[in-house]
Amino acid sequence: MIKEKVTDILVEELGVEVEEVVDSANIQEDLGADSLAIVEIVMAFEDEFDIKIPEEDAASMITVKDIVEYLENKLG
Amino acid sequence: MDTCKIIAAGKAAAQRTVTNDDLSKIVETNDEWISSRTGISRRQITFDESTTDLAYRASVDAINKSGIDKNTIDLIIVATISPDFFMPSTASMLQYRLGLNENNVTAFDLNAACTGLIYAIQVADKFIKSGSVRRALVVGSETLSRTIDWNDRGTCVLFGDGAGALLLERSDSGIMADYTNSRGDAEMNLVLPALPLDSPFSSKLDSPPSKMTMNGGEIFKFATFAIKDTIDNLLRSSRIEIEDISLVIPHQANGRIISKVSKLTKIPLEKFYLNLSKYGNTSSASIGLALAEAMEDGLIKKGDKVLLVGFGGGLTWGGVIHEF
Questions:
Q1: B228 in contact with A at a CB cutoff of 8 Å?
Q2: What's the mean per-residue pLDDT of chain B?
Q3: How many CA atoms lie within 13 A of B174 on its CB side?
Q4: Which domain holds residue A69?
């Protein structure tokens, strides 16, 4: 469930294909997110899951796997 | 005659054109990086003109376009975060430069960062509606180039110099709604320090850096919230629909913010007027400069309802809906 929503958001915000959103994909290097796109992605996660993601936590989201694991922990 | 109207908008572009390629020679950056992240291609930077000089040129432009006798101006407000002096104020010096020193003029500078012109319009509107002022000259003027750390590629690529000047007077049509707000920036996300404590009796604190600093990510989030909040408030209080607004002129900070707001509000991107590719972010000057150019380009016809929206340090934000 979380993985699907994360994929939808990354596809929408970064204009990438669903197939590119694999666990090991690096948000910046593989999916082409620049610093502002990362801010927008984090805003989208905050809206979608109704949570607040502090800057320090956002900085640790390097790959798709990092994001999914972070959200799974945060949402229990 | 129950509202206040903008009868003319003048502008002053700063002297030197500085392109992204020019910047790549002094800091680690390039045209592609700057353009894709901001939408800025070049900016105008002053060579030897002061904030007062720019304010003067923009004011003369507005006065010429309006055809009014400048001696009817009795309120001068200069919105700026880069005054030439704390004292005398830019507004008082502008009064002198315009040859109005013998007249009864109320003149002061106003600091609401990039929302400065909106705040100044709101203040002038209240002075005019109360009957205490006949004509107001409201100027946004900046030489941000003196406030920037030109070694910091995160900020020096964003900002420029310039001025925009508006003339306002009583009228049957004009401002239909106004809204301003503020939230103290406790996290210091957008800062330009003033003079540090310094006397034989004060504690010896470390001096903060004297140049502008910005947390881009946090300000991006704030800006998208602020624009949407302003538009929502203005539409609600004026009871106008967004379809009736012909043009939205935002503070010209970053094209990516506008794209995001367009997506969030479903307002088509074409409805936003943007000239930031030529000027970058000129803080208090940006909305006046943009309005002047939009009018010169013939984009605003009589009867058009235009929404101006600003947001910036403070943190401040707000806007007006104006019928031309």
A1: no
A2: 96
A3: 21
A4: 2-75
